[in-house]
Model the fold of this input.
Amino acid sequence: MTDVPVSDVDLYCDGVLSDPYPTYRALRDAGPVVWLERLQMFVVARYKEVKEALATPSVFISGNGVMMNQAMNDTLKGIVLCSDGAEHSAMRRVIMKPVTPGALRAMQENIYSQAEWLVDRLVSKETFDAATDLAQYLPVTIVSNLVGLPEEGREKMLEWAAANFNCFGALNDRAVSSFDTLKEMVSYALTQCVRGKLKPGSWAEMLHDAADRGDIPQEKASLMALDYMGPSLDTTIFATSNAIWLFATNPDQWDLVRENPSLIPSAINEVLRLESPIQGFSRFAVKEHNFDDLTVPAASRVVVLYASGNRDERKWDAPERFDVRRPGVGEHLGFGHGEHACIGMNLARMEITSLLAALAKRVTRFRLGESKRTLNNTLRGFERLEVTVN
Done:
């Protein structure tokens, strides 16, 4: 067996988070699997190995946590994201029920009408913040109403979600400073996402109904509401702002979408490939596993970099080019892959599609103003993205 290459890169320092792609390329070039000295973990950064790890849950389990620090892995063990086998399947069946394509069809008209109203209002202003005014409106409005959360405290959902994902990374200052905010989020779920405080017929109440039937454990019903609050917000919000930035910097691609709106689904896939909102999670290897001629021993943690696999030259032609007509772009890993693929991806696609369709009718060009990227241990997107449209 060949020795596994070693890297001393800090994946979670400000410099790498601001521009991770040169580091990802170096990891891909180093080999199919690399030992990260600072984290004391392995990492897979090539498309083939990322997909292989996600598609082999018998070896690379989620039940020991999917974060890059043990404190969070211990805290969230047993939630949908951090479970395996029959336990995971039972919870996923329950939580997926309202977000399947069939279930979401009943919401489509409302989502599209809200998108039309929002875009009409923003375009009339000519200049707006695409990261907040545009990207946050639908997820925050729709998710909070559908989940049926109490009004009190719900305004902190975005702050909680960002802290949640900061705590997924290495135990750096950014993660440590987010733990108190995360505790607020968990406390809110346990004290507010309970019978009598939830909107009748809401998604969160549905979780308690499932617990009453014995489909999921009673003690998990309130905490599982967090699976709607976090992932359903950030993936959509950051994917939307990333899309606007990409179309502003590649106006020829926006012309293609305007001329042919049927390209919107492919364009969304290309946005998710090129600027993946979630950069990666980890898995725990319960058995020895070979990636080509390199061995990951049993009882090892492996960082799985979706965003790097999505830019792998071994998979994609000209992977750093934004191409809304890219062949095979539906094979991207922006929503993960396998049995832990993103629960909220169908809702995210519908929301982003509605916004791009409305914008395509009204906007010929996005001109960038001031912008600021979010520095988050797991997420990639914009904190501010000022655009002027015409």
